[in-house]
Amino acid sequence: MALPPSAPADGALFRLTGVGYEYAPGIEALAGVDLRIDRGDRLAVLGANGSGKSTLLKLLAGLVQPTVGAVEAFGSRLDAEALGDETAAQRFRRRVGIVFQSADAQLFSPTVRDEVAFGPLHLELTRDEVLTRVDDTLAMLGLTALAGRAPYNLSGGEKKKVALASVLSINPEVLMLDEPTNGLDPRTQEWLIELLGELGGAGKTIVVATHQLDLLERLADRAIVLGEDHRPAADRGLADVLDDRDLLLAVNLIHEHAHHHGRLLHSHPHAHPPGLEHHGEEQPEHDHRHGRSPHDD
Questions:
Q1: Does the 12-250 domain belong in CATH 3.10.129.10?
Q2: pTM for the full predicted model
Q3: Could you tell me the mean pLDDT of each successive run of 10 residues in the chain, 297 residues long?
Q4: Of 98, 102, 218, 296, which sits with the fewest C-beta atoms within 10 Å of its C-beta?
């Protein structure tokens, strides 16, 4: 079954109905997912580590097929039969790009330029069009000076930029990113957030999977929240989700953090940035490094 060239008239790019996925019989990664993504959506997929965020992105990107339920993309079923049609698969791949959490899992070419050129070379473009597409993408992401370097010799932030460039060079309609800010220094994080804002403003559909809450208001307008039982706990506007303290506690995106103000024991919701853990007396009493709390208006 060939995927059609355009989305349905109602604007839905993706529909998931009763979707579940098992790594092996009885080992559940996702269950009971009903989801619609429209053209131009900026969607956050939220959940604690292991809740199924990456699996959901892989389902949307056609990298795995559901164990139960159905995934539709651009108005037609997205399954092994559809992707077995080489023409249909190529059409889908040029419309949907995914950036994995680990850039090392995505980069395989000998040079940065080769990496960025790989996608356009499979788009039936002329040689000059490919060269222009590659040069423009390298320039947009500030990678021109690194074009001749081997990706494996780059820093973590540079690798992330190259992985993103390799996807943007095909100019996809839908851009998916798995934990995009993990491992990035503050300057590169800010650069990436601004770029994603520009892409969203230009009409791209953006889907970001993350367990970080402090940057979300600049990345998404809506969130689907996955619980630790691998089932959706909510699908609604981002502001409403971030203000729902009970929901965030229940899905383990924040926790009650207790500390002393003098003789008064105080407890409040607390979300740790990645890599920051509390170890009893080893952490300063008031070094909370808060992101956005449901108390903050």
A1: no
A2: 0.82
A3: 51 94 94 97 96 96 96 94 89 93 90 95 90 95 95 91 94 94 86 92 94 89 97 97 96 74 49 45 35 40
A4: 296
